[in-house]
Amino acid sequence: MYHVLLVDDEPRHLAGLSRMLQSLRPEYVIRTAKNGVEALAICEQTTFQIIITDIQMPLKDGLDFIGNLPYESGPRKVIFLSGYGYFDYAQKAIGLGSFEYLLKPVDIDKFTQVLERAERSIQEELLVQEEMANMERQLKRVVPVYQQSVMNRWLKGEQLTATLQEVEEIVGFRGAGRVMLIDMQSTGRYKLKVEPIVLQIQKALEKLTGGEHSCCCCMIDNHANQLIMVTNAELSESDGQRLTAAMIDIEKDFVDSELRITVGISDKAIDILSEGSRLLIEAKLACESRFYLPGRRVYAFKQSMMLSDHALVFESKDAEAFIERLQKCEDPEFQLPVEQLYDRLLATGRPIRAVIISYSTQLLTEVINSIEYLGQEEVRSWLLDVMQREVKDVPDLECLKSNVSAVLLLISKKLHEMKQKRKDALIYQCLAYIDEHYMEDLSLESVAAIMHFSPGYFSNYFKNKLTINFSQYLTQVRLTKAKEFLMDSNDKVYHIAAKLGYHDAKYFNRVFKKEFGLTPEEYRTIARSMSHAREV
Question: Which Pfam family is one of this chain's hits (predicted)?
C-alpha cells in the first residue's frame, strides 16, 4: 500500500485524476492539495511514496514545491503534469529528480504504464535499502568485534594483523597515556549485568576528564567482568579521590548485586602505542594489590610494590617449623609465627594473589601429610578439605594469615585428640596384656618395655588412667583369679599360688588374708558352704 499526493489548482482536473487513480489502484491512500503551499504543508506531516503534481499553479508552482520538499529517507517518485509541452519545463523537472513528465490531458494507458514503472522502481529501491541496512547492521556487529580483537592482540603484545594506525584510530590518540583496568565483582544473589555498569563508568570518566582527554573503552571481558580503558588523562591524586567517589556512587546504584568496583591504574607511558602490553600488566598488578591493601577502590601501580614475575619457591623448612611446634606443644600459639612467615615471604616484594595462596596451600598440605599421629586417612582428608575452603577464596592477606593460623590450630586440636585416643587405646592394651600374663613374673619395668614406654612415664600414665598403681592392679587380677581357683578346684594352695605367679605360698597367704580377712583355705570352706546352702 502506497500513500499518494495529487496536487493541481484546477478542481475538475484534480477530481478526475483522483477518480482515475482510485479506479486503477483502489488500495492506494490518496490525498489532494490545491497548490504548492498546501502540498508542502501536508508533506511536512505525512510521507508519500508517489507525488503527482501540476507545474503551473498559483502561490507556489510544482517545481518550487518539489524543490522545497523535506528530506525523505525512503523512496519517493515525483510525476509532473503540465498542459505545456515545453522542453525547459521537462529539463527543470529532470533536474529536480522527477520520475516522469506527462502532458495533460493524461492518457489512461500511459498513466497506467507510468504507475507500474514507479511501483517497480520503489520496490527495487526498497530492496536496495534493505540490503544496505542489513550490511550496516552486520558492520555494526563486525566492526566492534574486529576492533576488540585488534585491541586484545595489541594489549597482550601479540602479533597484530592491523597497523598501529588502526590501533591509534580505535584508541583515539597517540603519545603519552596509561591503561586502566576496572574489575567489577558481585557477591549478591542477582546476576551482575555488566553493560549498564560500563556505561556509568564511561560517563564518570568522561566527567572526570572534562572532555579534554580521550578515554577509550578497549575491551570488555564478560567472563571476568573486567573493563579495560586506555586514556591520555593525567589522573592526579585529586582525580584518584574523585574517581573513588564516582565508583562508590555507581556501587550504590547496583546495591542488589552487592557490586564492588576496583580500578587499577598503570604508570604513564611516553608512547602508548608501543607499550600497551606492559601497561596492561601494570594495571592488572595494581588491581591485584587490593589483596594487600583492602578497602580501597582505586590502586596505582607505582604505589603497589607488586611484582609480575615474583615466584615463591616452597621451602620444606617452613612446614617443618610448624610440624615441630605442633608435636612439642600441647597448646601451641600460631599467630606470631604465621606473621613472621609472611613478613619474610613478602620482604622483597608482593607476588600476585594466586602465588601467595598456592604457597599457603602447599605449606598446610605438607604439615597435614607429615604429622605422625594423623594416621587415619579420613582425618587427613577432612583437614585437607577444610584447608582448601579456608584458604582458596580469602579476600585479603590479613584474612589469609588468620585462616592459616586457624587451620594450624585445628590440626593441633585433631592431633591432641588422636594422641588421646592412642593413649586410651594403649591402656586397654596394657590391661589386656596383664590379664593374659598375670601368672608370669610381671613387673612394671617389663610391661613398660613391651608397651614402648619408659618405666617412669608408664607408672604415672597407668596411675592417672586407673587411679591405682601397677602393682595394685596386678594384685587385684591375681586375687580375683585366686578366688575362682579356690572355689572351682581342689588344688593345694601352694599350687594355686604358683598358677598366679607367686613363688612363695606364704607370701600369697599373707596377701590374700590382708585383702579378704581370711586365709585361702578359710575362704574356700566358707564359699563352698554358702554355695551348697543356696543350692539346698
Answer: HTH_18
